[in-house]
Amino acid sequence: MEKIKMKMKLEQSFYAESIGLAGGLSLWWSNDVQIKILGHGRHFIDTEISAKGEPKWFGTFIYGPPYKELKREFWEFMTNLRNGHDDNWMVIGDSNVVSSQDEKLGGLPFNPTEANSYFKFIDSRGLIDMPILGGAFTWSNQRSDDEEILEKLDRILCSPKWNILFPIAVAMLDIAVDSGHAPIIIHLQGLKQNYKKEFKFESKWLLEEDCTSTVQGSWEPISQPRNSHRFESKLRRTKYTLIRWSKLKDRVKNERKAELQRRIELYQGKQLTKEELSDSNACKKELD
Q1: Whether residues 178 and 123 fall in one domain
Q2: Nearest to residue 208, comparing CAs of 155, 163, 252?
Q3: Could you give the C-alpha distances from 23 to 41, 132, 157, in angstroms and in order?
Q4: Which SS3 state, helix, strand or coil, does residue 213 take?
Q5: Strands (DSSP E) along 52-173, which ranges?
Q6: Are residues 248 and 138 in the same domain?
Q7: Is 127 in contact with 159 (CB distance < 8 Å)?
Q8: Tell me, what's the pLDDT at 195?
Q9: Cα–Cα distance measured from residue 167 to residue 112, given in angstroms and rounded to the nearest whole number
Q10: Predicted confidence band at 47 (pLDDT cuts at 50, 70, 90)?
């Protein structure tokens, strides 16, 4: 984990050690952030966080136990964490809890009784389940067809005070590569640096085969108590999903363009075989 931390160019770290191959948490941060460890255990790291120009807040990073018999014990512990003070508090990580059928696709049906202790925790502490843009699910069993299971296991819970402290904070899913869990990125000050211009739907996107499925995937049901909130959350999620999707499309096209230009350049000024000539013409046609 230290080697990975160094590759990511982060200077500070704290670890909740695993027991054998089970559990374990790694927390890394840069020198421009001050983090004080308030407590830790097999399934959590509780911290006090402050950064330049931002007020102090509390962050608890979790890996909820996957076993039914340990879930109630964990969420009861979380209910009493930090003496019940909400303050400017955010809880983030793998909750290992599905809170509704909307957060699950495939596998066994949603069982509300398995989430009872989780519901008691968020109700007793008055926490808000922060929307995560970019997809309805955060975890996949990485199988196909009828064996595929998708669930929202990773989540961000914040107190009303934290929400007031960071009113324009945005959470987004990144691309899962070597894990069934998709990374979550939180922009505390919103996306103003990356997306200053007004969002507009580009008509050229309709020519892309996966545009429709991208929109449909963003318009999945959202568990919000009011219809107006659900509609607003769907619009916001679709907007940021399309922005990420279009940027990825542009990047892939630019990389392909560079590859075609490189291959054409290699063929220039040399006698070509029949296969090389055919490939050169195909490259030129695609580039055009």
Answers
A1: yes
A2: 252
A3: 10, 24, 21
A4: helix
A5: 57-63, 89-94, 104-105, 128-129, 139-140, 150-151, 154-158, 170-173
A6: no
A7: yes
A8: 45
A9: 31
A10: very high
d(CA 24, CA 106): 28
Cut 0.70: pTM above it: no
**Is there a single domain that holds both residue 166 and residue 230?**
no
Residues 203 and 176 in one domain: no
- Domain match, 183 and 237 both: no
Mean pLDDT over 269-273 rounds to 69
Burial bucket for residue 78 (CB in 10 Å: 0-12, 13-18, 19+): buried
| Residue 17 φ then ψ, to 5° | -65, 150
For the record, the structure tokens of 243 come out as 């922005």
Domain with 63, as residue range(s), is 2-193
Number of domains observed in the structure of the chain:
2
Based on the fold, state whether residues 108 and 205 are members of the same structural domain.
no
SS3 call for 37: strand
